[in-house]
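Bumping with the actual sequence this time:
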Amino acid sequence: MLSCKSYVCLWNKLVHRRLYEIPECRSVEGLKIATDRQVSTRLYYYAEKIAKIDSVFYHYERANINSITSSKTSIHYESNILFHKLLEDFLKDKGLWDKYRQYVDRSKARLKIQLFIATKDYNLRKKYANLYRDVELNYLKELRKGEKTVIILTHFKLHFLAHLAIKYIHWKNNCPYFFCKKN
């Protein structure tokens, strides 16, 4: 799961009730976003057996513009900072930090760019520009060209240029097909 080979959402899992009875497998107070990630990480750790079906049986509706996940706010950043802190503490407590550190760092870098691209507020991106600064450049090769550009510009505090790059990415992803067609 930490290597992103499995979806972390709880709505697509059948979990034995006894796992939820383990205190560490409950959602942490104060975590408003990423609760599924926090809980499912622990469920995976305590599960004796895991089976996976790669078929789609569920459709998730994302058209609700009033949903908490439809626009990114400081709650998203703060919850994900807390999630990674809880994850790091959990892995250290279980003696697994050295084994999974690179996955956690990769998750931090991916999360930062995903939040930056999804955040419409320039000042919010500027506020969290230093988030995961210590690991973000280590994972540049895994990012797409536009994402790399945003991370590099942000890393060197060129916030307005990063903002323009994000505007370009949004435009490119939302433009009519005949403008985006590649030859």
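The tokens above came from a reply further down the thread. The CA atoms of residues 72 and 119 lie 5 Å apart.
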